[in-house]
DNA sequence: GAGCACTGC
């Protein structure tokens, strides 16, 4: 190890990668060797041909020597499948230890585990396993490599604070910076202090590597040879992508997207197109325009098949984007951000990036989350254009000028700094973190967001006025895989004897689309919705839907008939079962109130009393929050939207689009706010609230 | 009065 001024990138010898590769990545044109011509080779030889193979010994040397290794892994390097195997091969799976590999998403865990098991010729769940919510597939005695989600790792830390079963933790895709990843990073730093033998490998994009380095490096001297962290860049295997910018900024990126698609179609050689837009409505607009344009297009051009892709589409419609189109047809996929990292569509050669994304923002003063269209980061733009270089050289069209690109933020604000922190803070308390302010965050959340979260947890009875976890309720709430407000509803239901009903409601609020979003059949979907609606509001409507589903043998046919999301309802069933298990674990009674809607609504109030609103006498359908008079409206998806507006309501959350809308609303009686939640509203003057604040923090 | 980025436990 040299002790020069800048040993940020390790250069052990001529075969090791250096900064030149990092430079190359910046220019976004990475030229590499032949693509996957290895299919017929024996597995070992295939593995040896992956780009990461030539770094094998260097990486293993780093892992031995440094407590933390940061790998800058490009797409197609093979790191996620090979790295854990290298570690296993040199003995990190010995003496009963396991190697953990975390992923932000469930599907990635399952598919990676299966691929690695395949390569090793073993059955999944034996030597190689995975652990995700609702699906445990590993063996306590046999498993050596365990793929798990970031969230699952945090749950494991709750039961084993120093992760004694593991010899190495690989945090893959750390640059995505989800709240779970950030928490895991902070916790790992803590664990490393107590376990000098533990090794951590962080796989990240170039941009964040230096920050991760500084975060984990415990060397406080100038002597670089005492660093505890090392950065290893590993080249990938992708094709060059030509970046095209607009000369002048465009007025309407949706129209510009349509025009660009048509231009590519008419002037560029065959190859599928992927266009990024921000939401379903934009996608639908572009879809209609394109279908119209292709209708009167000259037959000298190829045919064109345009497909929408976003999360609220029924699964059947989503699958269409993965189907191959005939040779004479060009596939055009109009997608939301779902195609940036979550799904990969094969055969894309042209990418269009509108330069915007819908992102969750959090207003801590009003405790309101809202979806806003924001400019993408440079990192996102690079990720999007990279989607064009997976099969052969491609082209990316950025619908903004090059100078606008330069002005974009380098990377997106981490989730930790722009969302409701109450679930995260509750978890941290359950993990035994005494001082929330002193916790080593990789990105410190705004003080105001933390304060808001602590106050909510205090109001829910999860934390006391010394900011300590309350026994037993706080512990129970932390254990539940739910937002603490929903957890509180369940605990209230235990007291009031309606857990059966509340388990259903809590589970049902966790699924995004209860009804299918079938294009062209919106009217029929609306009609079906009305069949289940309860005058008391959305929560009891969700209960009605689940009961109907259950009484009709949970059949797919029933769901199809009423435009219900079958997969979603099955998911609700699993969530319900999991929540039921948690209650059983705590030996809490599971009872039914036999359809007493009043009792159920009272329990709901006990969970989301903070979100209470009263109909305002001015204007139609205007509500004001009880807490601070913030103006709100009933969301069009609510069953109460078409009804005579009720006087008093509680709601799950606010979505801000043109206006601020309440979602999942239940009608309440105003007395409940005093009788059931007096601890919150009785002392609700501003002066007293600020006194309370001073006390908590 | 008229709307729904994406994950995860």
From TrEMBL:
Enzyme class: hydrolase
Molecular function GO terms recorded: ATP binding; hydrolase activity; RNA binding; RNA helicase activity
Entry-linked SUPFAM superfamilies: P-loop containing nucleoside triphosphate hydrolases
Reaction catalysed by this enzyme: ATP + H2O = ADP + phosphate + H(+)
Pfam families: DEAD, HA2_C, Helicase_C, OB_NTP_bind, WHD_HA2
PROSITE patterns registered for this protein in UniProt: DEAH_ATP_HELICASE, HELICASE_ATP_BIND_1, HELICASE_CTER
Keyword match Hydrolase: yes
All copies of domain Helicase C-terminal, residue ranges: 257-432
Positions of the Helicase ATP-binding domain: 60-225
Top-level taxon in the UniProt lineage: Eukaryota
Enzyme Commission designation: 3.6.4.13
Gene Ontology cellular component annotations, sorted alphabetically: catalytic step 2 spliceosome
Stretches for region Disordered: 1-25
Keyword set, alphabetical order: ATP-binding, Helicase, Hydrolase, Nucleotide-binding
Entry similarity comment: Belongs to the DEAD box helicase family. DEAH subfamily.
PANTHER family: ATP-DEPENDENT RNA HELICASE, ATP-DEPENDENT RNA HELICASE DHX35-RELATED
Protein name: RNA helicase
Lineage: Eukaryota, Metazoa, Spiralia, Lophotrochozoa, Bryozoa
């Amino acid at each position: 190890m040299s002790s020069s001024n800048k040993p940020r990138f390790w250069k052990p010898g001529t075969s090791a990668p250096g900064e030149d590769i990092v430079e190359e990545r910046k220019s976004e044109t990475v030229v590499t060797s032949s693509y996957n011509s290895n299919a017929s080779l024996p597995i070992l030889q295939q593995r040896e041909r992956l780009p990461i193979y030539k770094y094998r010994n260097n990486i293993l040397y780093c892992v031995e020597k440094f407590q933390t290794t940061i790998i800058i892994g490009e797409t197609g390097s093979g790191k996620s499948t090979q790295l854990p195997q290298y570690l296993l091969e040199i003995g990190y799976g010995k003496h009963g230890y396991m190697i953990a590999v975390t992923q932000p998403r469930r599907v990635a865990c399952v598919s990676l585990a299966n691929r690695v098991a395949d390569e090793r010729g073993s059955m999944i769940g034996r030597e190689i396993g995975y652990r995700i919510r609702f699906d445990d597939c590993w063996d306590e005695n046999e498993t050596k490599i365990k793929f798990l989600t970031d969230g699952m790792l945090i749950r494991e830390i709750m039961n084993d604070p120093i992760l004694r079963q593991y010899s190495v933790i690989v945090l893959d895709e750390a640059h995505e910076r989800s709240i779970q990843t950030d928490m895991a990073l902070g916790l790992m730093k803590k664990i490393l202090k107590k376990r000098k033998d533990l090794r951590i490998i962080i796989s990240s994009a170039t941009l964040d590597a230096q920050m991760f380095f500084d975060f984990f490096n415990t060397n406080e001297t100038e002597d670089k040879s005492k660093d505890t962290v090392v950065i290893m860049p590993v080249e990938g295997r992708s094709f060059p992508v030509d970046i095209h910018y607009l000369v002048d900024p465009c007025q309407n990126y949706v129209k510009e997207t349509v025009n660009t698609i048509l231009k590519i179609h008419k002037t560029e050689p065959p190859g599928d197109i992927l266009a990024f837009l921000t939401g379903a409505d934009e996608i639908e607009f572009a879809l209609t325009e394109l279908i119209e344009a292709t209708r009167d297009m000259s037959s000298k051009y190829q045919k064109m098949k345009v497909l929408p892709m976003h999360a609220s589409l029924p699964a059947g419609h989503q699958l269409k984007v993965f189907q191959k189109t005939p040779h004479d047809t060009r596939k055009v996929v109009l997608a939301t951000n779902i195609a940036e990292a979550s799904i990969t569509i094969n055969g894309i050669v042209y990418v269009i990036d509108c330069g915007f994304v819908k992102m969750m923002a959090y207003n801590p003063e009003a405790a309101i989350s809202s979806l806003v269209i924001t400019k993408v980061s440079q990192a996102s733009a690079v990720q999007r254009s990279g989607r064009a270089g997976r099969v052969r050289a491609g082209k990316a069209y950025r619908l903004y000028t090059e100078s606008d690109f330069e002005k974009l933020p380098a990377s997106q604000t981490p989730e930790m700094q722009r969302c409701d922190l109450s679930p995260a803070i509750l978890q941290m308390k359950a993990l035994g973190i005494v001082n929330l302010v002193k916790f080593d965050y990789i990105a410190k959340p705004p003080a105001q967001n933390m304060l808001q979260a602590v106050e909510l947890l205090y109001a829910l009875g999860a934390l006391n006025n010394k900011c300590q976890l309350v026994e037993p309720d706080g512990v129970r709430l932390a254990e539940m895989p739910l937002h603490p407000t929903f957890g509180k509803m369940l605990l209230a239901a235990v007291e009031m004897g309606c857990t059966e009903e509340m388990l259903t409601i809590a589970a049902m609020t966790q699924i995004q689309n209860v009804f299918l979003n079938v294009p062209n059949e919106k009217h029929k979907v609306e009609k079906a919705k009305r069949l289940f609606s309860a005058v008391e509001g959305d929560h009891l409507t969700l209960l009605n839907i689940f009961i109907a589903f259950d009484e009709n043998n949970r059949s797919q046919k029933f769901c199809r008939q009423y435009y219900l999301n079958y997969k979603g309802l099955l998911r609700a069933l699993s969530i319900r079962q999991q929540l039921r298990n948690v209650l059983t674990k705590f030996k809490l009674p599971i009872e039914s109130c036999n359809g007493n809607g009043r009792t159920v609504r009272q329990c709901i109030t006990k969970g989301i009393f903070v979100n209470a609103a009263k109909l305002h006498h001015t204007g139609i359908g205007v509500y004001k929050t009880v807490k601070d008079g913030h103006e709100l409206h009933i969301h069009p998806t609510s069953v109460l939207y078409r009804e005579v507006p009720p006087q008093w309501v509680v709601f799950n959350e606010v979505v801000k689009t043109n206006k601020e809308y309440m979602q999942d609303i239940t009608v309440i009686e105003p007395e409940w706010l005093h009788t059931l939640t007096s601890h919150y509203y009785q002392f609700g003057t501003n002066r007293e609230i600020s006194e309370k604040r001073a006390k908590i923090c």
